[in-house]
Amino acid sequence: MRVDLFDFDLPDERIALRPAEPRDSARLLVVDPNSGANTLSDHQVRDLTSFLRPGDAMVFNDTKVIPAQLEGIRHREGAPGQQVSATLHMRAAPDRWKAFAKPGKRIKIGDRIQFGHGENVCALGTLDATVEEKGEGGEITLRFDLSGPALDEAIAAVGHIPLPPYIAAKRPEDERDRADYQTIYAREEGAVAAPTAGLHFTPSLFAALDALGIERHFVTLHVGAGTFLPVKADDTDDHKMHFEIGYVDAATAAKLNAVKARGGRIVCVGTTSLRLIESASAEDGTIKPWQGATGIFITPGYRFKAVDMLMTNFHLPRSTLFMLVSAFAGLDTMRAAYTHAIETGYRFYSYGDGSLLYRKD
Question: CATH code for 69-160?
């Protein structure tokens, strides 16, 4: 499909720079493409229980954001040191990470990069790495001098929370982001971007869902920085997705299959949990235990196998995520939904408001 079909104009003031307080007071646009004239309705996230029923199951991504934005100095024999930035996006081994580097063109295989200087140092001082591989678009593979838990601790000490570029361009990261840019149920460290639909949930909202009889299940997909990369191709067939690591355990798969068998609905919180569940699903809709790297690219025409409803934030124009929601609820429906959201003051992107989508029949 043509990528420009997924374009729209967003006024700058619609980009949220902080989350709503409390989190579940954010607005919620309910989009039901099967309801005829009443496709769109305006609510708050705390109204979520009005659209679910006992026996439904919500699926959350429990990945935890790490401070994956690193600043350092590149060292090369015969050349002066140069300031570089690296955003880790996928772990390749206990001592290796794939990263997006800036300025990427000036980095060569074999370069040494010393991360951590000034106030940001780990217990051992700086964190050093060697550039082991170099790919396209500024992607590199870093082999660190530390490995495993020791490397994790050093990254936590040296790194910064990697705010999305549309927020980082407007203000610096601060201590508040360490809490704001994390779901209350995050537990599996490894993401460099938050599963942002989950940012709306609070203990009181969980209690309300429990009282209604809504099941709560967790899967893990470590969101990579590739989620922010624009689609530069003119046609979706020419776009290359970046892979992300995740897993669905056997117990969770069995419980979700039982929900489907008794007529309950699977409601994914965020496009990350949806992509993982669809990656783990057979053609007949059965969800299998699954682990590995998924690069599933969902565009209109995709037949959803397992997911019935999707809660998600408002996404960037020409993005793979806007393509995904357009596949789920219909392109015309989602274009109308985004127009309504812009005109009525919804807040967009990671810290913005949410939507609840019914899958188009």
Answer: 2.40.10.240
